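Worked example 2:
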Amino acid sequence: MFKVKRIVLIGGGGHALSVLDSLLCLQEYEVIGYTDNSGNAGDTLMGVPFLGQDEVLPRLYEEGIEHAAIAVGSVGSTVLREKLYLKAKSIGFALPAIVDPTAIIARACKIAEGVYIGKGAVVNSSSVIDRMAIINTRAIVEHQSRLGVFCHIAPGAILGGNTIIGDHTHVGIGSVIIQGIHVGHHVLIGAGSVVVRNISDLKKAYGNPCREAGSV
């Protein structure tokens, strides 16, 4: 019989609702509460209590809460998400990958720490998902793709096989990236784009076909 792991949620906004719902569906974890720097005493999130601002995290760890989930999302900027990750790691928290039970993860995939994979998402065979990436609701990552650290594949986006997505890159809602494309680091791809050619680092890009439209 497995031991239930107590876990604290860091963040209390919209993305936290998605992460929390996934955690509540998993028998592996007991969510003891959440922290948020804009929260107030007495607040709850789907019935889970507010524990205080992020300054309480060291105390929670000392009290035996060894696991945390970064529940702050990212659209364009990953600065806050990375800051919270580094803070949690410095305290000593383990940051498990959170995979919603409705997601489909094929064999031979590698999923790093802190990754969140949402409802109905698909990660196909031999793909590599690096730390703190987000694969959101019903996004599809096809075979042998590689996602960099802190990247975000937004709801409904589709990545063809052998796609490479760089670190800190955001792929907008409903976008399609054909097979074999390389998207650079710190790229922002607008919603609904169709990417048929490689995109270099530090670019904004959108449209069908997707074209670079300036720097981030």
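The two ends are 49 Å apart (CA to CA). The chain has a mean pLDDT of 97.
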